[in-house]
Write a structure and sequence with these properties.
The complex is a heterodimer of chains A (248) and B (544).
Chain A lengths: L1 E5 L2 E3 L21 E3 L1 H15 L5 E8 L4 H10 L3 E6 L6 H15 L3 E5 L10 H9 L3 E11 L2 E8 L2 E8 L2 E5 L11 H9 L2 E5 H4 L27 H10 L4
Parallel strand pairs in A: 1-4, 1-6, 4-5, 5-11, 6-10, 7-10
Antiparallel strand pairs in A: 2-3, 7-8, 8-9
Chain B lengths: L9 E3 L2 E4 L3 H13 L5 E5 L13 E2 L2 H6 L11 E3 L2 E7 L4 E4 L11 E3 L1 H14 L3 E4 L3 E6 L5 E6 L2 E3 L5 E6 L3 E3 L2 E4 L6 H9 L11 E10 L9 E7 L8 E7 L4 E9 L9 H9 L5 H4 L3 E11 L10 E2 L2 E3 L1 H4 L10 H18 L5 H6 L2 H8 L3 H4 L4 H13 L40 H8 L11 E3 L2 H11 L4 H4 L5 E10 L2 E10 L9 H5 L5 E3 L14
Parallel strand pairs in B: 1-14, 2-3, 2-15, 3-9, 6-17, 15-22
Antiparallel strand pairs in B: 4-8, 5-8, 6-7, 10-11, 11-14, 12-13, 16-19, 16-20, 17-18, 18-19, 21-22, 23-26, 24-25
Helix pairs in contact in B: 1-3, 1-8
The chains are: A alpha/beta (248), B alpha+beta (544).
The complex binds flavin-adenine dinucleotide and iron/sulfur cluster.
Flavin-adenine dinucleotide binds next to helix 1, strand 3, strand 4, helix 4 and strand 16 of chain B.
Chain lengths: 248, 544
């Protein structure tokens, strides 16, 4: 069985995000970029499945310009067998990404697609679900536990009410949550090995996918600054202040 | 843990360079230019190249011209020609312009972000075939049986606070190489070990240091004057403390502001962080920052000892270059060109002879050393205070260091005055309004990140001394000199029958550390030992 893992290059979670002063986007000048943390967890899970003998090959896939090869190489250094870059400089939205992934799925015929539950930049949480629909296969989202046996995957999902356990037939799309596992560190010699692993570049045009921008982003704005609070003496003053502001 | 450890994996190179600052990267690039077949690796503890680099920085470009002759065609992302120099003497309320001393004339120089410059140099080294590994810290030295240096040991990852392996435990590997180049920058922790082990400082003065604290601001439109370089001396430092400020106006309304202060100050109550913040509130400075915001900030020590403190820079199997050796030119506050030149010199030395032997002599005969010799008396001249220092500086400058005398440096940790001997100090600090509010708020701008569940990388060799002697003699200066509020004295209330007792203990917030190394230098008992945390931990500076 092959496992396909989606990897997105995002601004590192430690970086303080700044909105460009003209509101056109986020300032990424000199900013640290990393693999989306949920995608790293997805890759870790894929590697563990392969190491348990339940899969033969782990393929990491990313959409973007040549910069995203850095994250693909990190994926290879973690242990993926090969990488595919879908080359594009288009502004990408979930449906476009799902369509491009679907083309790769058709070609590679994986038994399992693992993805992060969402990317920490756009927070869309849509790509995995859309891919499952395009592919017409089951989906299991927000996985915090995953086990495979034969042609079924048992997935523990984190839902509002607690944990839900479901079974899906393979092939399927599983999107993973934070508590599924803790990704491994990369060993230095594996970075060198990763340089020799195959990384195929396919242009998005050659896949026959065009970026459609059904969603238009009008502008970005930082969250409004919190106003300075005031200290109140007692409950009566609190009520009075709230009344003053028309809040009660 | 180490008992259960199996044999470490080994990688072999011809040359291993520790630290991807300007010195290490220049050395790597030059080695490959001279001998393309050499296998060269650079390891760097920061997660990304440049993320632990904090500098001014106005740089002299001659060294870059030599290393990468075509660099001006595709310059680093931040690179603004200096248009104008200003130097001023401040009092609490006034500012007086001074004539610019020749060392501080910056015509032909460039304002850069040194972090961004390193991130720009690294791919050029990689294009030549250098293997660069960010996110890996050299935690130990690998010694050969004959005692020579034979490479480095990369730190283990995934070890918990008690020293036990976690699920993610990964043993660090050894990198073996006939030659190790230490380019760790100021107060490198392995360089420190090597200097002691091989007694490299036997014939030199104690090393002298300063601390530099810096912020990068996005100022309100119209206030930034690209290319303007401003320095000041005087307030808020008293005349006994050597130091001053810098404000470098870059492009896109970005302004770098920083404060440097020698670590041989004597008042245990002094806080360099507070001095920097006070400087920003000087009436002539504050308007520049009002209405602006901080983009990034942090702190780093500066090596100030110069010629008389320069240790021997070679030992069997290894060399010291850049600030790890101590080649910064203090009156200019510039070390980048010296770092690059020393990296190149080390590279040609290695390319010629494949040995460390003779490098010390080569360096001492080079223009790098001539430059240091000329200015050797300027910092020790300030040991007698600002005014005497300025006079020494003037004399040494006029005579280009030719007077046949050399003033000496003393160790910074020995300069604190005991509380009981202190005259009361009057500090008319103003109430501050500009960000950051305090040190914790400033750590946020350094984007420092350490896994909390790892060994504490600030080793206190004698914890009892903190509570007993230090409290009494100096009042815990670590709680003030650390710019990131790592050290805190905490009182534990214990209620027992018959009353309650209060015990103090030192709390180390290691996760806040920005790797400046001040504590390792300034602690008066020399019982704080900075060792490297897990690779990839530490600040994530942007364009500092
Ligand atoms: C506030 C301030 C202002 C300055 N202003 C100027 C200026 O205007 N102009 C100028 O020319 N110079 C300036 N300098 C000096 C200049 O920054 C230094 O001289 C220069 O950075 C030295 O280069 P280096 O390569 O020797 O060391 P560094 O630049 O310090 O680089 C050392 C690198 O090694 C890494 N490292 C250390 N130990 C290890 C380890 N064990 N394992 C792995 N990696 C490790 C560090 O993370 C770092 O990236 C300033 C310095 C400061 C602090
Ligand atoms: S703990 Fe030491 S090295 Fe870390 S920030 Fe504080 S003074 Fe600097």
């Amino acid at each position: 069985m092959k496992i396909l893992v989606g990897i997105k290059r995002v601004v590192d979670y430690n970086v303080r995000i700044r909105v460009r002063s003209d509101g056109s986007g986020i300032d990424t000048d000199g900013v640290k970029m990393s693999i989306n943390p949920f995608d790293e967890i997805a890759l870790e899970e894929a590697l563990r499945i392969r190491e348990a003998g339940l899969a033969e090959e782990v393929i990491v896939v990313s959409l973007g310009g040549n910069e995203c090869q850095q994250q693909l190489r990190t994926g290879l250094a973690m242990g993926a067998d090969r990488a595919i870059q879908i080359d594009t400089d288009a502004d990408l939205q979930p449906l476009t990404i799902a369509r491009a992934f679907f083309k790769i799925v058709e070609k590679e015929q994986p038994g399992l697609v693992l993805m992060g539950k969402q990317a920490i930049d756009g927070d869309n949480s849509q790509t995995g679900q859309m891919l499952a629909a395009l592919w017409d296969r089951p989906q299991a989202t927000f996985a915090s536990g995953l086990s495979l046996s034969g042609n079924t995957a048992t997935v523990v999902r984190e839902v509002d009410a607690g944990l839900e356990t479901i079974e899906v037939d393979l092939p399927a799309v599983v999107s993973v949550d934070l508590r599924l596992n803790e990704p491994r560190f990369v060993k230095l010699p594996d970075i060198m090995k990763a340089k020799r692993k195959p990384l195929d570049v396919i242009s998005m045009d050659d896949l026959g996918v065009t970026a459609e921008n059904d969603l238009k982003v009008s502008h970005y704005a930082p969250p409004p600054k919190r106003e300075k609070g005031i200290m109140v003496e007692d409950a009566a003053q609190l009520v009075a202040e709230l009344r003053n502001r028309g809040l009660v | 843990m180490s008992e259960t450890a199996t044999e470490r994996e080994i990688m072999e190179y011809d040359v291993i360079i520790v630290g991807a600052g300007p010195a290490g990267l220049a050395c790597a690039i030059r080695l490959k230019q001279l001998k393309p077949d050499l296998m060269v690796a650079v390891i760097e503890k920061s997660a990304e190249i440049g993320a632990h680099i904090l500098s001014g920085a106005v740089i002299e470009p001659a060294a870059l011209d030599e290393l990468l002759p075509a660099w001006r065609e595709s310059p680093p992302p931040i690179c603004i020609p200096v248009e104008r120099d200003e130097i001023a003497l401040l009092t609490a309320t006034s500012k007086r312009k001074l004539p610019t001393p020749p060392q501080q004339k910056n015509h032909g120089n460039f304002i850069v972000s040194l972090g961004a410059l390193c991130a720009w140099m690294a791919p050029q080294a990689e294009a030549l075939g250098v293997d660069i590994f960010p996110g890996y810290a050299a935690a130990g030295v690998h010694y050969l049986q004959n005692g020579a240096v034979g490479g480095v040991i990369i730190g283990d990852m995934g070890v918990d606070r008690q020293g036990n392996p976690k699920d993610t435990y990964m043993q660090g590997i050894e990198i073996h190489a006939p030659l190790t180049v230490m380019a760790e920058g100021c107060r490198g922790h392995l360089s420190k070990q090597l200097i002691t082990k091989f007694k490299l400082d036997a014939d030199s003065d104690p090393q002298a240091y300063g601390i530099g604290i810096k912020e990068l601001w996005q100022v309100a439109p119209g206030k930034c004057k690209p290319g303007l370089v401003q320095h000041s001396i005087g307030w808020p430092l008293d005349t006994k403390t050597y130091g001053g400020s810098f404000i470098y106006h870059m492009d896109k309304d970005r302004v770098a502001v920083g404060f440097v202060c020698a670590l041989d100050y004597s008042d245990p109550e002094f806080s360099p962080f507070e001095a920097f913040q006070q400087f920003k509130h000087h009436p002539s400075v504050k308007p520049l920052f009002e209405g602006g915001e901080i983009l990034s900030g942090g702190a780093r020590t500066i090596i100030e000892g110069g010629a008389q403190s320069l240790p021997k820079v070679e030992m069997p199997g290894a060399l010291l270059i850049g600030d790890a050796a101590g080649l910064l030119n203090l009156p200019k506050i510039k070390g980048t060109h010296q770092a690059i030149r020393s990296g190149m010199l080390a590279a040609s030395h290695i390319a010629e002879g494949s040995t460390a032997e003779g490098f010390d002599e080569t360096l001492r005969a080079s223009p790098i050393m001539k430059e240091l010799h000329k200015v050797r008396n300027i910092r020790p001249g300030f040991n007698k205070g600002l005014w005497r220092g300025l006079i020494t500086a003037a004399i040494e400058t006029v005579t280009v260091g030719k007077l046949p005398r050399t003033l000496h440096n003393h160790a910074d940790y020995s300069s604190l005055t005991k509380l009981q001997d202190m005259e009361p100090v009057d500090r008319p600090w103003v109430k501050r309004s500009l960000a950051p509010r305090d040190r914790l708020a400033s750590v946020y701008f350094a984007a420092t990140d350490h896994d909390e569940d790892q060994l504490v990388h600030l080793q206190i060799l004698e914890p009892d001394v903190c509570i007993t002697r230090c409290g009494e003699e100096y009042g815990h200066p670590c709680t003030r000199f650390c710019p990131a509020n790592v050290y805190e004295m905490v009182t534990d209330q214990m209620t027992e029958e018959g009353g309650s007792t209060a015990n103090q203990h030192l709390q180390i917030n290691a996760a806040n550390c920005v790797h400046c190394k001040t504590c390792d230098i300034k602690d008066p008992y020399q019982i704080i030992n900075w060792v490297t945390p897990e690779g990839g931990s530490g600040p994530n500076y942007q364009n500092l």
